Amino acid sequence: MVKTWRRTVLLLFIAAILTAPAYLRAYVLTGVSDAPTLLLGDKALVNKAAYSVNLPYSNIKIAQAGQPKRGDMVQIKWPEHPVLLFKRVIGLPGETIELRDHRVLIDGTRLPLNPISSDVSWVPPAHHLGSTIFDEDGHRIAFTPGAGENRDMRPVHLAGDQYFLMGDNRDVSLDCRVWGPLKKEAILGKVILTMATGPRLRPGRLP
After folding, report:
1. Would you state the pLDDT for residue 197?
2. What pLDDT, on a 0 to 100 scale, did the predictor assign at position 32?
3. Residue 11 class from Cβ within 10 Å (0-12 exposed, 13-18 middle, 19+ buried)?
4. N or C, which end of the chain is more exposed by having fewer CB within 10 Å?
5. pTM for the complete prediction?
6. Phi (first) and psi of residue 205, to 5 degrees
7. Tens digit of pLDDT for each residue in 118-152?
8. DSSP string computed for 108-148
């Protein structure tokens, strides 16, 4: 009986080791659209099973795991190219999203937004970070008030299977302001851990 129990535990452990890479993957940041949360060279650990569980190493869905929530940092597939990107979930199915000088309105109500720093010297110039860092509903973003061609957007109503995502570096991010809403199938996983290559305003904080 003890041998059988040990054998079962060992088999489960081996199975976990073999299947973990199918659901947990680390990526190195190569873009600047998510500063100041993520900088070039940072690593992000993505849970591929956060929202949908597929048969390991395949695209065959076997279970529904959850729904993206506002504020989640997620990995998506760029609609126009075979490129993986990181963006933040802003709008959820059924909501109406609007932008007024970078301020996000959900069904006519503004998301909380407060400036938290005017010092962006800790972010390398290559990131082209906006002039001010803000806390937007509990997450750090950056933009330059009054600047940016995508700072305003007319109300967009999301269908039952659509999400609206944006990068945290709003001045330079290409996101749903340009592409339009994305379906859930374009969201590939959730960022659950980040590994920074330099200092942060709040070290160790998940995105």
Report:
1. 75
2. 93
3. exposed
4. N
5. 0.84
6. -80, 130
7. 666 778 888 999 889 999 999 999 999 999 899 99
8. TEEPPEEEEES--TTS-GGG---SEEEEETTEEEEE-TT--
Mean pLDDT of the 14-19 span: 45
- Write the CB contacts of 56 (distance below 8 Å, at least 6 apart in sequence): 18, 19, 22, 23
* CA torsion angle 189 193 198 204 (round to 10): 140
Among 147, 146, 164, CA closest to 155: 164
Distance CA 32, CA 159 (A): 29
Q: Which helix (H) or strand (E) holds 84?
A: strand 84-91
Cβ contacts of 106 within 8 Å, gap of 6 or more: 91, 95, 96, 97
Residue-level pLDDT at 60: 65
pLDDT reading at 7 higher than 80: no
For the chain, domain boundaries? 24-195
Distance of alpha carbon 144 from alpha carbon 168, whole angstroms: 12
Q: Cβ distance 134 to 125 under 8 Å?
A: no
| Domain 24-195 annotated CATH 2.10.109.10 | yes
CA–CA separation, 192 and 27 (whole Å)? 12
Q: What are phi and psi of 103, to 5 degrees?
A: -75, 130
Report how far residue 72's alpha carbon sits from residue 163's, in angstroms, rounded to the nearest whole number: 12
Token digits for 28? 């190195």
Per residue in 36-58, pLDDT (tens digit) is 889 999 999 999 999 987 666 56
Rounded to the nearest 5 degrees, what angle is found at the Cα of 79, between the Cα atoms of 168 and 27? 55
